[in-house]
Automatic annotation (TrEMBL):
It catalyses: ATP + H2O = ADP + phosphate + H(+). One of its GO terms (molecular function) is DNA binding. Its EC number is 3.1.-.-. The keyword Cell division does not apply. The gene is dinG_1. 3'-5' exonuclease. Pfam families: DEAD (PF00270), Helicase_C_2 (PF13307), RNase_T (PF00929). Its cofactor is [4Fe-4S] cluster. It comes from Oceanobacillus sojae. This is 3'-5' exonuclease DinG. Keywords: ATP-binding, Exonuclease, Helicase, Hydrolase, Nuclease, Nucleotide-binding. A motif (DEAH box) lies at residues 477-480.
Amino acid sequence: MTDRKNQKKNGGGLLRYVVIDLETTGNSPAKSGKIIEIGMVVIENEEIKETKTTLLNPNQPIPPFISNLTGIHNEEVKDAPLFIDKAEKIIRILQDSYIIAHNANFDVGFLNMELAANGYPELKNPVLDTVELSRILFPTISSYKLSHLAEHFELHHDDPHRALSDAYVTAKLFFKLKEKLDHLPYETLYKLKNLEEKLQSDLAVILDNRLEELAFREHPDNQIKHYQGLAFRMSEKETKALSEIDKSFGEYLDNIYQEQGALSKAFSSYEPREGQRQMSETIYDAFSAKKHAFIEAGTGTGKSLAYLLPAVYQAITNKERLIISTYTTQLQSQLLEEEIPLLKKVIDIPLRVALMKGKNHYLNLEKFLYELDYGSKDNYDFVLTKAILLVWITETETGDIDEIQLPAGGYIFFQKVSADVEKTINPKSPWFHHSYYQLARRRAQKADIIITNHALLCTDMFNDYAFLPGYQKVIIDEAHHFEETASHHYGLKLDYIQMQFTCNYLGTADEDKQFNAVLKATDMSQKEELIDKWNAAIKEAKYDIDELFHLIERFVRAQQKNDKATSDLGRVQYRIKPETYQQDTWLLAEDIAARLRMHFRKLLDVLSRLVDEYSLDIGDEKQFLEDIGQMQDVLEKYIDDLKVMFQEQNEVELIKWIEVDLKGKHHSVFLYSEPSNIAPILADDFFSKKESVIFTSATLTMGSSFKFIKERLGVSEQDLLTEQIASPFHYDKQVQLLIPTDFPNIRYGNIDDFVYAVCEAILSLAEVTSGRMLVLFTSYDMLRKANDLLKEMITEQQYVIIAQGVTSGSRSRLKKNFQSYDQAILLGTSSFWEGVDIPGEDLSALVMVRLPFQPPNHPVFEAKSHQLKEDGRNPFMDLSLPQAVIKFKQGFGRLIRSSNDRGIVFICDGRIKTAKYGKYFLESIPEVPVHYEATRHLMSHAENWFHQQ
């Protein structure tokens, strides 16, 4: 990189660019990969001047999957020239030019290795990588694959995975990138220039030229603020106050829902849904009676609009603020970006809606500026993240990090610059008015409806309602997650990696870390005593963290029997029981934890003395106090959490457990706790304090009863309304449910035979549906076995297998990959049983491998079962079965997402027909045709039904 940078700096204002793209036989020339096609597009004076392309003979067979991908076959290249025949011409075309490529490391690296292998010197041209530049300049785009960018910018892509077509589209993309660069403010470009040396793209000359042009011009966008060398967008748009509604609630709904109402005028394809209005009316009744409500609304009800309409009516007529809470921040954004605009279109009334998330979601501009000017520039992910954020702040009006995609290490950097570091902020400081978090709070204070998430709602609840503006009525969507979220937020998590990360982040006095930065800000003459105390405590803390987690890992290994519980990620789980506290190893762990708390108290003492005893340079005081406060918060939380985890008696009865990845080292150890029963806590801290809490979800009942969810959440019967609303979809025509009679019985130890039968059924069904299949597992081990077996059973060109925990990427990334292939099979564990929306023909088959019972030795389930037994109740009927039925309903709901969807559900678990409790599962879903036959008959039926018109 250094040679290229020096070359570029001496190169003057080059205006000639050559875009290249290669098709190759493999990913690396070091592993016998060869170029089979090169495409080149020459750009001069910002115009495409010429294009060049040639096939090359690789002197080896082209792998079948490469031929399938590119359409280039062995016959086409057998008479093509060798690379050495074209090398000089390629070098000549590239002379005195920038090289542009989409993922330049691959194309330029591959080309250089081919040149070196043929006796030519490597290219030293300045390089521009359009993947990197797209990430920086268009940070809100969800994918940076060339095909996705082409679609986003409406660039015509004739022949994807052919070199010239890809190079041509990359050239068009470069014009978009250059245009965006030319519209950035001077300050942004200047800060980018300071980061440029560590980027992969050689931007210095381009940035210098543009900075020279902008030196004496003002940026035309008056929404861009300029402060202390930073350019950012921040505007407080004032929405008019709500007007009056001079209609009864019934008339209000008539004007919206009836045949010639607002919905039918807004949407030509609108069809009235009785259940939607029914839901709106039930919510209004609950609000009016100041009661809580459970509403189960089947898929396709349109529940978002159904609950937003009474929320708006209540807010306007009573002039009161309402909260709407969703399970994830993604669902929050979906409500704001899709449902609220639809609502405004329908009601045509000014409405103030605000999105509110936790502090850790918002960028702190002051800390970001500090990191830009004084932070480390060594880590590429950090530098790339800084560049992304620099551009993003010229566009965002929220500062909410969920708007963009950061590189893996970028989220670690973001922790340093999020609003979470704002322990206190002086309202008189200019940064107070340039704080995205404070802006979000101001918007929330003025809002009629606040959209938040369960996590922040619970954080607010368990912190004396200090985070959200006051409210008395709340609608909780995806409510089947609320108990779990509340339990997690009342509980805690400790792990080796995070604790060691904290100690490394704080650092010793002689390391360039947080404590050193605090020391530099002080104006004291004698630091030796405090430095020695700090250094000793940090080193001892790191040693004891290592000892503690190593001991716990050995302890769990020693405790494991054949019936060990495992998590979705394959970690072994062990519940800390009353007898655990008497075991010698655990007593030793308690001693180490007590020592660790002592080390952290010593660190707190040093920080307190720094604040109390030493004077400061007044200019650094605010930053100093913020840094100290942040360090104190972290250390105090560790002291409290260690006490809770290793102390047998607690105020609230807690379930405590350990998770260990036995394939990893002792750093793969996690400690958890949560209340054994959150219901009394919610009853006291939530339901008794709020007038009306509305719970809604597609899955709240078992056997048409809300009994399970009512008990788990602690809602009393006299304060409650309930309603079940059926889905408007025609499941009897849209779905076929298939259950085989001839699968091996897993109860008799035939796990391998069972997995083999599952894989055979998956491939047989995939032949019918052309892949497009989601396979849901309850066990990560079984998923892994099935993934390995499927890959043995198929050829590469048949189906793409994407497996959670095996294929890298987040759940949303795996889903996108699945949708991008014509014939793909997606394997997922528990998190894929819900919240995955794959509408239309992208998903045509759903396979449930086992009924989703929680393993009986799962720590939380085991503890709650034990409690139910002590109360004289049946843990299976009162806990295990309801949980499994609700999860089964969620899994079933993945298939049909619109009235036009059709698909097959294949359930490998015969218990749904043979066990007495099986009827609860079948009765929980809409009535569909059920076929219970030998697998070959089921496949024949699937073939006939699926291909009916």
